[in-house]
Every structure is written in C-alpha cells, then in structure tokens.
Amino acid sequence: MTNKKHSAVLIPGDGIGPEVSSAVIRVFEAVDAPIQWAEHLAGIAALDAGDDVLPNSTVEAISAAGVALKGPCTTPVGEGFTSVNVQLRKRLNLYAAVRPVRNLNGVSTRFDGVDLVILRENTEGLYSGVENQVTDDVVMSMKVATETACSRMARWAFRYATQRKRKKITVFHKANIMKMTDGLFLRCARQVHQRDYPNIEYDEVIIDAGCMKLVQDPTQFDVLLLENLYGDVVSDLCAGLVGGLGVVPGANIGDECAVFEAVHGSAPDIAGKGIANPLALIMSSVMMLNYIADQRGDERCRAAAAKIKTAYDKTLDDGQKTRDLGGELGTNEFTDALIDRI
After folding, report:
1. Is 230 in the active site?
2. 312 annotated active-site
3. Residue 217 burial (C-beta neighbours within 10 Å; 0-12, 13-18, 19+)
4. Burial class (CB in 10 A: 0-12, 13-18, 19+), 170
C-alpha cells in the first residue's frame, strides 16, 4: 500500500476555529489519516495578519489541493466585509452545499429517526449580492437565477441521491409568488427528474408549508433541494431537530474542488475558554475523507473516516458530551474521549 499523503488546506478560521481545528488534527493523527495539512488564513485572522479577508494565496492553495477543511469565519452583520463563505463559493464555483442531518445516540431531541440531507444551490439567488441604493431611503436586492446553475444543481442532486441510495427528493420553493426565479428552479428540477432520474421519487412543497411539515414530522422527508437563501435557513432549522449546529457537518462542492466546514459561527464569546464543541468540524472532516476516497480511490481515507465516525458515535452513546449538549466536557476533554475510543 502506498504511503502517499493527500494535501489538504486547513483554514482554522476565527474565534473558536483554531481550537476545534486543533481537535481535528489530533483525531487525524490518532487514526493515521493520510492527510498532509497546509494551513492558510481567511477571515479576521487574515486581516490581523495584514492580508485580505480572503487572500489569493488561500484560494490558490485550495485550487491546487482540490480539498480544504475550514473552521468558522466571522462575518460582520449589516456592515463590513463580504462573507468569506460566500466569496469562497463564488471564486471556487462550489455550487453544491451538502448538509446531512441525522439523530445521534446520546443527544436527546424531540424527534427520533431523523435522517435528512439538505442540498442547496450555492452561487445564486439573493446571495448573489446584487444590491443597490435606489434613493436615500430605498435599497434593492436582486434575486438571480440562471438555467445553467439551476439545471447543474438539479443534476448534482439527483446524481447524489442515486449514489447514496436515497429514495426521494423534495424541492422547497416559493414559485407561487416568485414565479420567474423559483419557477425556473422548479422547471429545471422537473426536467432533470423526468428525463434522467425517473427512479427517484420527486415532490415539490411551498417552503412555508414545508417548514411546518418539517417541525411536525421530519421523517416524512429524505433529500431536500433548495435554492440558496432557502437552503441556508432550512438547513439550520433541520440542525435544530437533532441537537443544533454543533452536531451537523457541511460541505461545499464544485466540479474541481470542495471545502468542508463547520456550519456554526465563530462564537467569539467563548473563544479561548476551551469549551467549544469540536464535533461539527470533526464530522465535516469525515465527509472530507470520504470525498477524497470517492474522488481518488484511496480506501485508507474511507477506513479512517469510518474509525472516526464509530468513535464519536460511541463517545456520545457513552454520555461523554460537551456543555452545549448537556455534558461537562471541554474541547480537549471531548477530543480525548473520542481518541480513547478509536
């Protein structure tokens, strides 16, 4: 077996980002994952180092490696620089956001049997950032949709569902009001389904009704396909069904590369206190390892991913949890407990 390691960019991020990133490094060492990290900056950490909020060197490194793991980066509210996440998705054309959401043993929630995947178009919609000052007291934000991006995302979603043996895709939309933009998103999904993937069950739900149905019984859904803004909101809603943003991973995937990330914020109020939950970033790193295995055929990565997943499932099942989940462990203590179970 080859001893070659795969290069992966590590962006520690801001706030609690360096702490949870360090946890991932320790876990990867424990399973001997064949990954060589190349650390680069983004966000406030990059600004503090005298660079741009998203340095060209970071983007170029991700392009070269083809894969990255990113901790949370701070985004100012209502002012300041554009979101690092949005910039990364645009510059690297990471058009498919993937958010698996499932119940975890040992994490008590209102619902059992939740096993959802939220797939979100990642480059258009209101997040295109086309905003204008119309008059002194009127501003406008434009929602952008193209047939190219809508069809591309639909094809990706149905291909994903087929590969992962998922049975049903439901599109959440507001085409009853936004007949052109959401209407285009719907038409593209229907076309891809009818032409190429009639084996996958397909459904459409107006998003407000869909959110109600989710909180009534999330087990009636399988894979959700949404445009950008809806996907952002609904993916966080679904995280709340299984314990919060600290227990769900995330990925942003394009044709050439992928960035895996913790989907929670940088939590500056607890940074440096050693109490942050590293699980979301650890789970995202498992997705990264499986992605590398799929793309490059290296089963060492899949084996390492399976070991980590088994270990964190066992850790939670044994009642070893961080404070946000009702436990008492800090960041390092939880990581120690996970490593003990590898």
Report:
1. no
2. no
3. exposed
4. buried
Q: Verify whether residue 236 is a known catalytic residue.
A: no
Which of 14, 232, 298, 324 is the catalytic position? 232
Hey, what domains does the chain have and what are their CATH numbers? 1-103+244-342 (3.40.718.10), 110-242 (3.40.718.10)
Select which of 32, 208, 217, 294 is catalytic: 208
Q: Is 76 exposed, middle or buried (0-12, 13-18, 19+ CB in 10 A)?
A: exposed
pTM: 0.94
Q: What share of the chain is helix, strand, coil (3-state, %, to 5)?
A: 45, 20, 35
Q: Tell me the C-alpha distance between 123 and 125, whole Å.
A: 7
The residue annotated as part of the active site, out of 14, 70, 127, 230, is 127
Give the amino acid at 141: S
Q: pLDDT averaged over consecutive 10-residue blocks of the chain (342 residues)?
A: 87 95 98 97 90 94 97 70 83 96 93 97 86 89 94 98 97 96 98 97 98 97 97 96 96 97 91 96 98 96 98 97 95 98 96
DSSP for 75-97, please give it: --SSSSSPPHHHHHHHHTT--EE
Residue 163 burial (10 A CB sphere; 0-12, 13-18, 19+): exposed
Known catalytic residue: 48? no
